[in-house]
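Form 12-C: Joint structure prediction
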Amino acid sequence: MSEVTVPAAQRAPEAESVSPGRWVRENLFSSVSNAIQTMFFSLVLLGLLRWVLGQIFSEEANWTSVATNMRLLFTYNYPTEQFVRIWFAAGALFLAVGASFAAWNLNPMVTVRRVGVALAGTGAVSLVVGLIAPDTTPSAVRTGFFVVGIGLVALALAVLKVVPEPHRRQIPFIGLLAGVAGVICGVLWFFPFGDYGFADGAPTAESGTIDSSTSLPVTVMFLIMIGTYLAGRALARMIDLGWLRRTMIGWWVIGPAFIVFLVLRDPEFDWGYVLAVDVPMGAAFALGGGALLYLLAKPSRSELARVIGALLVALALFHWVAAFFGWYPMLQKARFSFALIAVAALLAPTFAGERAARLRFAGGWFGFMVLFHWLLTGINTPSTLDIAAPPFLGGFVLTVSIAYYVMLASFPLGVLLSLARTSKMPIFRVLATTYIEVVRGVPLITVLFFFSIMLPLFLPGGMGISDLAAVFAGYTVFSAAYMAENIRGGLQSVRRGQYEAADALGLTTVQRTAFIVLPQALRVSIPNLVGQAIATFKETSLIAIVGGFDLLRIANSTIPNQPDFLGQKRPALFFISLVYFVVAYSMSRASRNLEERLQAGQAR
Amino acid sequence: MIRSTTRWQRTAGALAALALVVGACGGDDDTAADEPAAADEPAAADEPAAADEPAAADEPAAADEPADEVEATQGGGILDAVKARGVLNCGVSGAAVAFSYTDADGSMNGIDADYCRAVAAAVLGDATAVEFTSLTAAERFTAVQTGAVDVLMRNSTWTQSRDTEVGMDFGPTTYYDGQQLMGRASDGFTSASPVSDIDGAIVCTNAGTTTETNISELAAELGLAITLNTFEDYDQVTDAFIAGTCDVITTDGSGLVGRKAVQEPEGETWVIFPATPISKEPLGPVYAQNDSQWADVVNWTVYATLIADENGVTSADADAALAGDFGAEMQRLMGGEGEKQTFMGLDADAFYNVVSQVGNYQEIWDANLAPVGLVREGSANALWTDGGLMYPPPAR
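Section 2 - Result
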């Protein structure tokens, strides 16, 4: 789907320029009832806005509690000296975003007129806010709203006047992004928010700008993203774009693991054990398995592959039986690796083909094994299991990580479940249906309670599961069931003829599903999937109830219980609702762009 | 070319996410290696990876056993486990002002947090060797039973049912709390007002707590006609009181004092009454049942801070006390002679570390409870010599 690029010329042309007065007449006051509705809802809106402003600038709203607790809200008690890890992870993400924008040339053109209208709109809102702000508003703030509002409106009018044909002239989106980033950085560097901190058990407040330990990394993040985009575009002119895209796909697959490893890795990581046990074992499975699969994926060896696959399945099962009775010790991940190689061997005939195809198959296994062992090592070494004791991850970082990884993990699980549920094989269908219905019949909070509080009781002595892993597992189990239902809706929209055409081409079931049915089903499911992604993001606040320190718990119970800010809940709650809104709204906008791009290539 | 890209994109994406699932729930590979017998158990944690029927069928069987398991694993010595680990896992609230709250720099403070530090100082010689786990009210006792925390210092009231029905024991009380009421002086309330003065008033408290039960039981007993309004949490209760929706609010005395100190508006006087609380809320450490050695360690750590207080030994005087300047009992406690502490598995200077690194009870009080306006003199928390209830056994 991603290869569908739409030249701007093919899109619907932008509407003819309409004068603002005419637009208002035609849209807001076209009839008496319309005019009444416009007036009524404008008043309601203004009243609401004034109330919100009253909350923000009321005398008891003490924003010091939020400013002082910025660190808690964003990273909880993640050690300050380790912040570089979070910034590094964020940098890696921004870099990947910039490079992906370059690789797929995600740079929609925006007309000057749209930019002008957006600027004027923002300016007008700022003016209105200045006008209706309650009396408690500091006069400097009110003046600030007026200045910004008049400035923006003037700028917009100037731009629309100076640029000829503003509805035709286009500027690249990335340019706008750079402009916005510049404004954000400028505000961070030069606006006198004041420097709030905490030292020796008491909040400190100094006038001035925000500490450079915040503004500097943020600036670097934006520079990285835009720089990578420009470098990527330059590179794309020189080399094969396909290569760049494959590299980026590879990064998005390995990147999350990289970030987990970076952010969650315990400072006291046991490198000796990793080098002596984990690395050789991972390498052995990756190389040995790759070689085996390369040999088995020859079309003439299909029978042999099935026999060997069956033997490996038996061996893998035997390992579990042996572990159950305690006959010999074997690492859990070795047992998993055996099971996976067995499945891969059974799949070998499906991927059989020319030398290049076999190499890709073996290479894919190699990459997967490296990733698999890396993840298990990064997340589950004994030293990292003890992360359970301190919350370690909290605040915005926790909210985002849980949401991100739950979405990432529940997506394939959901795809598998939906396929199983629509399968012709009764056993899969019944199992998948039972799973989905049972999980959907239980509230998320119950699932989370089960995983975080009940599960440790069932585990044998000496074994633990970190809170984070328990919440993650529970949430994934829950989310996958909903994901499966969303995707099933998509699957049902794929027409019968598509299946028949695939069968007529002689594709196997796996090929038909992977290359014909799923791509179409997933495209249809995008709005629902994004809707669920947003829900997943917001519902992370439930992990507060099972002990996670997410944004909500910090704002709702940690900050109001500090002696300096006892009972001050409202400012923090306002602040976090803003954070939730910004993230959720960005996701929703991004999904609309994605839909447009995908829809454009599909003329039905 | 493009086609193969998409194919690999999907395959690799699916595999990577599978790896994530398994990675997060795969259990502990390395402990499994040491304990083959336990190796089958991660199956419970693996179930999301299996993606099929949840393993519900075999879970209930396991559910019958946890009690035995807990005793089997924890009877063998939390003390040794803590020493081997080098760090104390301490359960706290993290959101209870003066008891344990998280400061803006992420540090844990309060009397409960300080008693965690005291236990760490006694066992490990280092008051900073604590990892705090912030627990909700729902999680706290499970955390003790599963061994997720070695000791729980989470302003938990010692009650008969908690002590006897759930697998845990209670240590000596570190703070005697009790439910009281708070009203406005302008409504005629004084600190000497009896409970019967609230007849006809709108009383507010937070829902689903023993506080709610206590006040309604008391009102029924005394035949008082009160309107009980309950709110989700205590911030809302206080907000409603400030707004005038409630005439009287009620919760533990320590909470009321804190609210009065910080939130009392100008020109208004809030009074806390009656002088004798309407309920008993002894708060102290909680630990797993049937580990006497660990119980001794925690209990005597608390006693040590009280004995030091009796003898007037502050953290600055610890060296002098060790030298014998504060009498024989203090010298014994500090490990100066006889080394009483080694019998319970601690170093001889264990309590010297407690007093020098954390301080005596009065110092802990001054650091945490005094700032929110709690007064020790004349309360149940004064030493027995001053008419209070703090009566540590002698160190000899």
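Section 3 - Comments
The longest strand of chain A covers residues 195-199. Chain A touches chain B through 110 residues (CB under 8 Å).
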